[in-house]
Amino acid sequence: MLKVIPALLTAALIIGSMSGCANQRYEQLDAAYRATLSRNQELQQELDALQREIDMLQARIGDSDSAFGSAAETNAQLRADLLRLQERYRQLESRLANLDFTALNPETDAALRELARQHPDLITYDSRRGMLRFASDLTFALGSVEVQPQATQSLQALARVLQGAAATGYDLRIVGHTDNVPIGSATAQRHPTNTHLSAHRAIAVRDVLGSAGISRNRMEVAGWGEHRPAVANRPGRGGTEENRRVEIFLVPSTGSAELESSSGAASPAPSSTRREPEPMK
Fold first, then answer.
1. Can you name the residues that pair with 247 across neighbouring β-strands?
2. Secondary structure, 3-state, 69-116
3. Which residues of the chain have a pLDDT value below 70?
4. Quick check: pTM over 0.85?
5. Every domain of the chain and the residues it spans
6. What Å distances lie between residue 31 and 19, 34, 35, 36, 165, CA to CA?
7. Superfamily for domain range 106-252
8. Alpha helices in the chain (DSSP H)
9. Span 10-30, pLDDT tens digits
């Protein structure tokens, strides 16, 4: 019996030791499990956040694709419109080139040809359009609307042609033009823009013709400024001489040349005095 007791005690100690090891192992496994579960939850949250970002990016890409498609469609439409307009422009150019303007009668045409021949530096005559072109640089002083003596003499000669029996059936359209050089400070006091300057020069030409005996009922004036260039404007202060001009068109009369306006003669073009050097207009 005494021998059995030590054996039982030894067995109990062994079992207790084994139980303690088991408990310790369990606690370790439990702790590892809980840590793994916590990490898994964190990873899941990160995954969910990444998925939301992916969804947002896909939505933005979809919007961009839609906007790009719309922009591409608009661009294609604009290109088609541009091609149509270019084609229409070419057609209009072709029609204009082939347009048969009303020809002047032979006597008037011959008289205008001779006038241009006598003043080749000042006057260009386009018989197809019934138009005389006066070079502004020779017709006017710098920044001025006062007609120079040579141009006055040629305009008086033109008036004599227009008073002839063959030309009394024509009215005059007098149109001023400039290049695109901006108006200088001194000129701007009297002619604020190129349009003003071109119109005032047309009025000055009309006044010379009126003083030479042409009824103002036969004449109309206009000024295009720099907006109807004869050639492409060149850069620089010197501007483009070809675009500084006054054009006189002979057109079939629309009224009686014998009747003067009840309001009297129109106001003359504003006078000007040369004050300082400016770009040629």
1. 133, 175
2. HHHHHHHHHHHHHHHHHHHHHHHHHHHHHCCCCCCCCHHHHHHHHHHH
3. 1-34, 37, 40, 93-102, 256-281
4. no
5. 1-99, 106-252
6. 18, 5, 6, 9, 124
7. OmpA-like domain (3.30.1330.60)
8. 4-97, 106-118, 136-139, 149-162, 185-188, 194-211
9. 655 565 555 555 556 556 665
